[in-house]
Design brief:
The protein has helices at 13-16, 39-48, 58-62, 79-88, 103-116, 130-140, 160-163, 174-177, 181-197, 289-299, 309-328; strands at residues 4-9, 29-35, 53-55, 69-72, 93-95, 120-122, 147-157, 200-208, 219-226, 231-240, 246-253, 256-260, 268-272, 276-279. By secondary structure, the protein is α/β, with parallel strands linked by helices. The chain has 2 domains: 4-124 and 287-304, NAD(P)-binding Rossmann-like Domain (Rossmann fold, 3-Layer(aba) Sandwich), CATH 3.40.50.720; 130-282, 2-Layer Sandwich (Dihydrodipicolinate Reductase, domain 2), CATH 3.30.360.
């Protein structure tokens, strides 16, 4: 493929700045069509972003002969549906995270990708951001010695919209998102750690709903280990009081430790016997831009994207293992 002409299915908030404009910034890449079920919103997006075509029906976008690659940016309950339809139409797919609502849907997406020969790539862009690449570099070059443990702590306040059913969105509707905020946010953390240490091979977890604002889990804890030997723990809570929030990943080795945030994109802190150092990085204006450039290069045959359906499916499996008892008992 010389020119990658993209169609977006689901031109909502995530596409406004994080991803949408980046499709026109990569070489030989163009955003030529968008789709949203609300026709007026699709038309408005196309007008504001100078996109030639808009649709309110996904099948029309998928079958548009001017579109030769599809970005699926809907909520997770339709990721598999639209990705499979696009691949069966002979079009590569770049899909938002989490890859799907559950691991089974991920496996079906992979099966269709293999059957059709269409690439299936997933929007885990932290694998390409400078701060996260620096953390990986510090681990790979032995700066902290042999990696031993990982600890994740993510505490978020409940927010007004979570308290009242009429204000809640898909992030706390398991039928749409697969689970609650845990699936949406821990997905980034587990995918990144998969990038650094390889696949998680053992995992156990406890998921609870303690505040009762919605049906999804709001508090989670887990232990896990990687095939490489690193041991991990994590805790997530999405109903804490404002002012008590926390966003920390700490990686400890035999010669030091690294502390950084997953969502604040701040400093990377390195602590060794000799020194304490801080590294600060600037993200691209469109935070998915580096990964989208990799996607385009792979589709052109000029490179390889670091975030695939195979790696993304592993993250879905990990999260499903952690929450399975909660949803089995419901």
């Amino acid at each position: 493929m010389e020119e990658i002409n993209w169609g977006i299915i689901g031109c909502g908030d995530v596409t406004e700045l994080k991803s949408g404009p980046a499709f026109n910034k990569a070489d030989h890449s163009n955003l030529v069509a968008v789709m949203r079920r609300n026709a007026s919103k699709a038309a408005d997006y196309a007008r504001r972003h100078h996109v030639q075509k808009w649709y309110s029906d996904a099948a029309q976008l998928i079958n548009d002969p001017d579109v030769n690659a599809v970005y699926v940016a809907t909520p997770p309950d339709t990721h598999a549906i639209y990705a499979i339809a696009a691949m069966k139409a002979g079009k590569p797919v770049y899909v938002e995270k989490p890859m799907a609502r559950n691991h089974q849907e991920c496996l079906e997406m992979i099966r269709v990708s293999e059957e059709t020969g269409m690439p299936l790539l997933v929007a885990y862009y932290r694998r390409t951001l400078p701060a996260f690449l620096k953390v990986k570099e510090l681990i790979d070059d032995g700066t902290i010695g042999l990696p031993l443990t990982v600890n994740i702590r993510l505490q978020r306040s409940y927010g007004q919209k979570d308290q009242y059913p009429e204000k809640q969105d898909w992030h706390v509707d398991p039928e749409v998102g697969g689970a609650g905020h845990f699936y949406d946010m821990a997905a980034h953390q587990f995918d990144y750690l998969d990038f650094v240490f390889g696949p998680i091979t053992e995992v156990q977890g406890i998921a609870k709903n303690l505040a009762g604002y919605y049906s999804a889990e709001d508090t989670v804890s887990a232990t896990f280990s990687f095939g490489s030997g690193v041991a991990g723990t994590g805790s997530w809570c999405f109903v804490v009081s404002p002012g008590t929030e926390e966003d920390v990943i700490e990686i400890t080795g035999t010669k030091g430790k690294i502390i950084f945030s997953c969502f604040q994109h701040g400093d990377v802190k390195l602590v060794t016997e000799e020194r304490t150092s801080f590294f600060n990085f600037q993200n691209p204006e469109n935070i998915s831009a580096n990964l989208i450039r990799q996607v385009v290069e792979e589709l052109q045959g000029n490179g390889q994207c670091i975030s695939t359906g195979y790696s993304a499916a592993r993250t879905n499996w990990v999260m499903a293992e952690i929450t399975k008892d909660y949803y089995r008992n419901r």
